[in-house]
Write a structure and sequence with these properties.
heterodimer; A: about 160 residues; alpha/beta; Nucleotidyltransferase, domain 5; about 20% strand; B: about 190 residues; two-stranded antiparallel sheet; 9 strands
């Protein structure tokens, strides 16, 4: 006992928190590098369907999104519960898709335009009627590369 | 000149500031990549193309219909989604050269060799009342059938799974086992399945 307990009233040195900020900064940089800014606010509820054979979207910057689903809770009083199409930040009808695709094309480089992908993010409970309309409209403005957004099934 | 020692900066709050920044980024950004099933829509047909479409031999086409009650028909009989993959695989592969299943055409693939390529086309038709989740489930099964055939082809020819092949080899396999899924012109599929 006496070997170690020479002076029991020695104070424990406080843990240095100087490196704490470094650790947090490292976390911060990790998140800054791996995530992207949310570009639009969702106005429709979208629960993506599951599919096991999904592939990754190669070029995120070359894709535009069409959200289809029922309006979120707070907007249901105004817009009802029918499935709606959301382009950018507002509800649109299928006639507006042509303008939307044109403006998205316009924003891209000349060389990238043929690679443009339209991502259809539709809720799993949506009926195919509205999606068929969207697809027909996309064909008409020859945006032929599409992707049905789906998520990998959670195991 | 009085050489007073400057007091060290108090750095204990930098961690708090960094935490605030971190929280901000956690809130405003999205993680993860977009995944989904990539498809190519057919261009709007002109009058000439319509004639060409009809020339596809009957044995080369399998019609997968989904009606408004989410029931699936492959060919002429109703089928469960779970069995659809095997049916489509058999259709595309045609291992016994059944005269009712699609014919094969020997094609020379550049840089590889001549392989028999199935001429089978899957035609997917749906109703306006079909639910999207069923539609995606069916699409998924069709893609799975093609992917499995590609895997088998790669195993037989390269001894590796499709995903492990080089880009060039993947191109060959893609040509040997094409993914011919045609999303038909919208039309209402009858709800009666007989």
């Amino acid at each position: 006992m006496s070997m170690f307990g020479g002076n029991n009233k020695k104070e424990v040195p406080g843990i240095s928190s100087g490196s704490l900020s470094d650790i947090v900064f490292m976390l911060l940089f990790f998140f800054m590098v791996t995530t992207q800014m949310r570009e639009t606010e969702n106005k429709v509820q979208v629960k993506l369907p599951e599919a096991s054979e999904v592939t990754k979207l190669e070029r995120k910057d070359l894709s535009s999104y069409i959200n289809i689903g029922t309006p979120i809770r707070s907007l249901q009083a105004q817009y009802g519960t029918d499935a709606r199409i959301q382009l950018n930040d507002s509800f649109k009808t299928k006639e507006d898709i042509r303008d939307f695709v044109a403006s998205e094309r316009e924003a891209m480089n000349e060389g990238d335009r043929p690679l443009m992908t339209v991502c259809i993010r539709a809720d799993q409970d949506v009926r195919m009627g509205i999606i068929t309309d969207v697809k027909q409209e996309l064909r008409r403005c020859s945006a032929l590369k599409i992707m049905y957004s789906a998520r990998r099934p959670s195991e | 000149m009085s050489k007073k020692k400057t007091p060290g900066l108090n750095t204990s709050s930098t961690a708090d500031i960094a935490f605030l920044l971190l929280c901000y980024f956690l809130m405003t950004t999205t993680m993860g990549s977009q995944t989904g099933l990539a498809r190519r829509l057919p261009p709007i047909p002109d009058s000439k193309q319509q004639v060409e479409d009809q020339k596809i031999n009957r044995r080369n086409i399998i019609v997968v219909r989904i009606n408004s009650a989410d029931r699936v028909l492959a060919g002429s009989e109703g089928i469960e989604i779970a069995f659809l993959k095997d049916k489509v695989k058999e259709f595309l592969d045609n291992p016994n050269n059944d005269p009712n299943l699609p014919e094969k055409e020997v094609k020379e693939i550049e840089g590889f060799k001549a392989v028999p390529v199935s001429k089978g086309v899957i035609s997917l038709q749906n109703d306006r009342g079909t639910s999207y989740s069923t539609y995606i489930a069916v699409q998924n099964e069709l893609v799975k059938a093609v992917n499995e055939l590609r895997d088998e082809f790669s195993m037989a020819n390269f001894g590796k799974k499709y995903a492990r092949l080089s880009e060039e080899e993947q191109g060959w396999v893609k040509k040997a086992v094409p993914q011919n899924i045609s999303e038909a012109e919208p039309k209402d599929v009858n709800a009666s399945t007989r």
